[in-house]
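Hey, I'm writing a tutorial for new members on how sequence and structure tokens pair up, and I'd like a real worked example in the thread rather than a made-up one. If someone can provide the structure for the chain below, I'll link this post from the tutorial.
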Amino acid sequence: MRPHLHQAVRYEYSNAVNIYGNDVDSLVVLDANNNTISINTANVTSQLATLQTQYTTNLANKAAAANSAISKLTALGLSADEIAALRGQ
């Protein structure tokens, strides 16, 4: 799942229970006692960028692994139809 702003807040503030708002400047973050948590928007923005980079890297790694597996199966003599059947396509 693609990273979301609320996920970045939770990484930065483990005591965040409720998060309202869809952009970093309008966020309202509450703890378990409904007390407002003051957030550092630069840290949240940085954390979101980190999560997005990790997400993109993971997608690229999965695609590379799939391509590697297909190459190996082809080298073993499987046809494109057989490989597609294994992949559920």
